[in-house]
Write a structure and sequence with these properties.
It is a single chain. The chain is an alpha+beta fold and 375 residues long. The protein has eight helices and 22 strands. The protein has two domains: 4-233, 3-Layer(aba) Sandwich (Rossmann fold); 240-361, Nucleic acid-binding proteins (OB fold (Dihydrolipoamide Acetyltransferase, E2P), Beta Barrel). The protein is 22% helix and 36% strand. The protein has a six-stranded mixed β-sheet, with helices on both faces. Strands 13-12-11-14-20 form a five-stranded antiparallel β-sheet. The longest helix is centred in the middle third of the chain and has 18 residues, at 166-183. The protein starts with a strand and ends in a 9-residue tail after the last strand. The relative contact order is 0.12.
Length: 375
């Protein structure tokens, strides 16, 4: 298998910067997901790694060898496309074995390797069928088998599940994770679906406007987002974000806003009140409480089966609470919610970057020294 290194890679299309100085190190055997909204540059980055698009700047290395100017077929990387790209006139066996025939591998060897890969992906009974006779999930497995039969250094996947329905997408996600564990292969996977990223990745690189906003484990991105963009992108529903002010009272720090007056669980004295953007995950808000709470009016209650989403108007802000069903509240009812201080995130209102509380003797909130880490 292969280690992939992307060093300060950029891509411009005229005046448009699709990818901006991206650096990544994908370890041998890792499952790294490139996540982000449409147009953020994730597919362009994947195509540059595959050799299908030429970078404007930077280097791409596979196992330490610079392949930036190397043809795609010589990079030992297998690409799985969103559209499957199967040959309609070939059988399943013909599609799987095509890369080997193109390399002039002997027929007996092709048959042996096709049979082995087909058995791994449970395609053995479908080898004589044409793609038109297959379901979407079966076609996806054929596309994967065609990539696997080459025994590549790494698999590059560009939104391979986006054409499947929700139920099949969930089942195929599980199959891909199990396949990764069996093969121990390097997977680089592009998606805009945060559920795919959170459930499949060993690490996620979240892109925003051609740059990496944060790279880390799914838990790191979800629990300690480095910016309001990361906080707002991950989570369904996403993190509640609202303007607030941090104030000092008798040596303790409090978060205040219209309808909000709650302790932060930190000690210190501020010279002046500090404006912030506060963030709280909907599932971390609890209905009820008196002292140090957030007060609002119920605007909407959505039934999700085992849970309910309660939308609250808190001053000029709307907050979402994710609670077990029944939540026991009604529309237009005045309620209070509370949050553990450890679940309150603070961001700089100007830069959107996460704020950290320095040692108590320093009595200051500060943003990270580096803007947004990229690896």
């Amino acid at each position: 298998m292969a280690r992939l290194q992307i060093e300060a890679v950029s891509k411009r299309f005229g005046a448009h910067h699709a990818v901006r100085e991206v650096s990544l190190d994908v370890a041998d055997g890792e499952f790294l997901v490139l996540l982000g909204p449409s147009g953020c540059g994730k597919s362009t980055l994947l195509r540059m790694i595959a050799g299908l698009t030429e970078p404007s700047a930077g280097r791409i290395l596979v196992d330490g060898a610079d392949v930036t100017g190397v043809a795609p077929q010589r990079r030992d990387l297998a690409m799985v496309f969103q559209s499957y790209a199967l040959y309609p006139h070939l059988s399943v066996a013909g599609n799987i074995g095509f890369p080997l025939r193109a390399r002039r591998v002997r027929r007996a060897e092709i048959a042996r390797r096709v049979a082995g890969v087909a058995a791994t992906l449970e395609l053995s009974e479908l080898l004589e069928r044409k793609p038109a006779a297959l379901s979407g999930g079966q076609r996806q497995r054929v596309a994967l088998a065609r990539a696997m039969v080459r025994d590549p250094g790494a698999f590059l996947m560009d939104e391979p599940l986006s054409n499947l329905d929700a139920k099949l997408r969930g089942a195929t996600r599980a199959e891909l994770v199990a396949l990764h564990r069996r093969l121990g292969a390097t997977f680089l996977y592009v998606t805009h679906d945060q559920v795919e990223a959170m459930t499949m990745a060993s690490r996620i690189a979240l892109l925003d406007a051609g740059r990496i906003a944060q790279c880390g484990t799914p838990a790191e991105l979800y629990d300690r987002p480095r910016s309001t963009f990361v906080a707002g992108f991950l989570g369904s529903p996403p993190m509640n974000l609202f303007p607030a002010v941090v104030r000092a009272r008798a040596g303790d720090l409090w978060l205040t806003a219209d309808g909000v007056d709650t302790p932060l669980g930190r000690t210190g004295e501020l010279g002046t009140a500090r404006p912030v953007i506060a963030g709280i995950r909907p599932e971390r808000l609890r209905l009820g409480g008196t002292a140090g709470c957030i007060g609002g009016t119920v605007r909407r209650v959505e039934n999700l089966g085992g849970e309910e989403l309660v939308q609250l108007a808190v001053g000029a802000t709307e907050l979402c609470v994710r609670a077990p069903r029944p939540a026991g509240v009604r529309v237009d009812e005045s309620v209070t919610v509370r949050a553990d201080p450890a679940d309150i995130h603070l961001f700089d209102p100007g830069t959107g970057l996460r704020l950290t509380w320095q040692a108590p003797q320093e009595n200051s909130l500060s943003r990270p020294a580096a803007a947004v880490p990229v690896a």
